[in-house]
Each structure stands twice: as structure tokens, then as C-alpha cells.
Amino acid sequence: MDAEINSKVVFTADRKVPLLVRVRKNKAAYFFILPTILLLTVFMILPLIYSVVMSFYRWDGFSDPQFQGLSNYLRLLNHDNFWLALKNNSIFMVLFTTFTIVIGFLFAVAISRKVAGWQIYKFVFFIPVILVTAVIAALWAKIYEPSYGLLNSFLGVIGLESLQQLWLGNPDITLYSIIFVAIWQISGWCMLLFLAAIEGIEEEIHDAATIDGVSPFQRIIHIIMPMVKNMTFILIMLQIIASVKTFDLIYVMTGGGPFYASEVLGTILYREAFENQRFGYASAISVVMTIIIALITIIYLRFTQISNQKK
Amino acid sequence: MSENRIVKLIIHLLLLLCAISVVYPLLFMFMTSLKTHQNIILDPFSFPWEPYFENYIRAWVDTSLGLNFLNSIIVTVGTLVVLLFIVLMGGFALSRFPFPGNKIIFITLIVLIAIPVHSLLVPIYYFMDMLNLRNSLFGIILLYTAIGLPFSLIIMRAFFDQTPRSIDEAAKIDGCNSWQIFWHVAIPMAKVPIATLAIINVINIWSEYLFASVLLVQPASRTLPVAIAVLQSGEQGTDTGILFAGLSIVTLPMLILYALFSKQITKGVAAGAVK
User: Fold this and answer.
1) Residue of chain B nearest A237, judged by CA positions
2) Is some CB atom of chain B closer than 8 A to the CB atom of A5?
3) pLDDT of amino acid A311
4) Is the ipTM of this complex over 0.85?
5) Does an H or E element contain A66, and which?
């Protein structure tokens, strides 16, 4: 406990000291870091390894697991719903990422230029972010409800009966109804992050622009957009990852239905594991999800490194 | 100039429309929760001039929502306390001690941030089953702590890296051991990152559904998101009034917190995401 607290954490200089001496010198550190190591090992590292191993087995959770080689992965590739889910994840990704970022950016610009009532807008647009996703899903399921739901009733009242839809019952539009809710929920979050980036722009630049008679449109293109470029990259990556992981909203609203119309990787994983008891197969889906996200992350890191080098 | 005015008017109208589209569904939720079933079907848009509180009483008593509410609070507060304490300890260790393994742990944390926790669902379910921690709030607190750990620890380490070590030195000369320095010097210094991390994590924990839905299956052990999903799927027979009362019960605490601390919350979320 009385181990020395070094005035500076220098890794390289310490290299020459024997390992055991360094361990002994810092024994207090191991006490402080131990809970972290334990928790991460039990709940993240072991499960991760387990997941990869299990994906090569056939296992129902009760009988002995049987080694199957790559057959879970082959089955996945031949599973129509897997491709359907990938397609839905992709549609979700493109629409969700584009709209949340564009809407978030526009909100942020309006609020940073202090339009009348900007404090109220900032407050209101962020509200959905703090709501529980399951609540949002249940609420919108009721709003989309075909016979007495808010949306169809409203369309009826204003005389647009022709637009009334089975919002969550028509396989052609279900996915889009859900994506709309996801955009509704998360745009405010993008707004907040853009605001943080825009507030980094010095007021003098804006003042100079005002004196030079720059139009609001030019201001967005030439001053604000270059300044939020990095934030945009970060947001694009985070939203793409969120799209691959999306689950709660879809599962509570439709369970992946009707007729698998809103199936995504997350809903297949859940169903295979906890309804069909195919733990090995579900693990293979997890591994595929992890690989997709890892690839996106690597591409993103490459991309940002290249753009940083150019500076 | 007049063209400019039209553009401005359009912008204002659009903003207003967006604000209404956010607020109205919530207002609709609260209004519906105060109506009788008949009223909900016949007159969905009306204002509940004669509020019908029966829905709340039935949601709280008939379904297990009251208990689930308590569970959610226990899980959220419990996770926050455990998580923040472990993160303070870990951040202190990573920032102040050049112990062998320091770098490896830090790199592991960064890698773990990129791992989608969803993909750990099956093994974690199985592990929890083995450890007899299914349907246990203690188990889910440990799990949520682990999930929040990598990100929170990186932020805490960055914070400690920025703080001067001269105070530690002075305390050491005064004869404090590492634990005393941690307890009396490091923790009081870290009020700002503690608040930031509490805000970011509280939103995630209060809303977490996926793991809770597979691990907390007994009605008495469920947290609110799971209870709401069950209520919505109509396991206990769908009564719209009760469902909306339930939704309101879940939403109100977060809305109140947000109304009270909106500045801190928006700042905390932005600070957390930028790093």
C-alpha cells in the first residue's frame, strides 16, 4: 500500500529496471486496477473468446456441444433471412445516418445563430435522447396503430384518408416507419454534438464574415462546414455502428415482422438464441456483427489518419 | 430583403414543426394516460379535462410496475456507485503508476470500446446462468458496470493525466499512503469527470433493454424497459390506458431530471462524446 507514487509516469525510462522490481514498486497500482481487470475479464474478454469458440459448435444450451467446423457460418450464408437482415441493416444505416446528421446539423446551425427561441429548441430537440427506447417503441407503436392510432386518426380528421396506412403491418413500409422513429429519437443527439463543434468556432471569424457581408448560406458552406468536418466523420462512424447494432426499437415495435419485413441482424440473433435455442448459430451471427463493426472502425481510422496527414 | 424574410419565416415554421413533432407525441402520451379506455378510442385528441387516475393506480398495483420501478432505481444507482468507484480507482492506477501491464490494459480498453456488447449476449447469458446471477439485480449491476467501464475509464484516466501531481507529492511527503492519497486527494479533485460520467451512464443504464430482457425474466426482477416491453406486447392483456400510464411513469423521472439539469446533461453528453 505504501508503494511509491511516481512523480511522472515514464514507461521507457523504467524499461531497464527488472520486471519484478517494477511490479513490487507499483504493487499499490495492482490493488487499484484489480476490480477493473476482474470485471472486464469475466464480462467482456471471456465472453468474447467464448463467443468465437461457440460459433464453431452446435449447442442448444442443454446437451453437449458438438463441433461443427464452419457449418454455422455456411448455414448463415444460406439463410435467406440473413441477407434480408443485411439489406435492412443497410437501408437503416443509409437513411438513419444521413437524416440524423443532416437534421442534427441544420438544428445546430439554427440554434448557434440564436434564432428566436433557440433555448427552447435546444431543450426540446434533445428530449427524445433521454427517453427509454422501449418507451419510444411502445409509444410509436400506439401512434402507428391502424384503427385508432394517432397518425391514422389525424389523417382522417384532415381528410387525407387515402394516406392512411398499416404503418407497422404493411411489409413494404414497416421498416421505413421504424427508421423514422429512430431518426426522431437521435437527431437531437447529433444536434448537440454539432453544437459543441460549432461553438468551437471563434466569434471573430463570424464577426469578420458579417462585416464582409457573407450570406447565411455562404457562412454555412465556407465557415461552419469545414469546422465541423471532424465531428461529421465521428458521427458518421458512430451512426453506422449504431445501425449495425440496432435492436430495441425494432424488437419492441414489430419483433422483426410482419413476415420478417423489419428483420435485422440483432433480431435474428435474439430469436435464434432465445427462442430457437441455437446458441452456436447465434454466436456465429455475433461474430459476423463484430467483424462488420471492426471493419467499419478500421476503415474509419485509416480514413481519419489520411485526412490528418494531409493537414 | 423581403426574400430574406420569407426564408426566415420558413426556417421558423420548420423549427416549430419539428418541435411540435417532438413534444406532441409525449403530450399525447400523458394525456392518454389520464383517460378512460372508452375515451381513448372515441376521442383520441381531446384534452383530459376530468383526469382519470385509475390507470396509474392499476399500472402501479396490478402490473408489477411499482416493483419494477424500484428495481430500475436500485440498478441505476447501484451501477453508478460501483462503476464510478472502480473507474476512479482504475483511472488513478493507470494515470499515476507506470506498473508493468499499464499499457496493455489501456490498449485493451480501447479495443473493447469497439466491440459491440450485443455480440456478447449469448455467452453472458450462459455465464450468468452458471454463476446463478440470472434474475439477480446484483448480477445486472456487475454487468452494466463492466459495459460502462472501458469508455468511462479512458475518460477518467485522461482527466487524471491532466491534473498536477504536485499535490500527490505533497501528500506523500506528509506521510500519506497510496490509499489515503487516492481517498483524500484524487477523489475530491475528480468532481467534474464524476458528474460527466454519471450523466452519460445514467441515461444508458436507465434505458438498457437487451441484456435486461434476457437476464431479468421473472416479473419481480424486471427493470422498467423490460416491464414496458412486456406491457406493450400484451402479456397481461393490452389495456391502452394502463400502458400509457406505465410509459408516463417510466418517462417522468428522466424528464424531471432533464428539466432540472438540462445544462449539465447536455454539456456532459457533449463532453463525453467528443473525447
Assistant:
1) B114
2) yes
3) 42
4) yes
5) strand A66-67
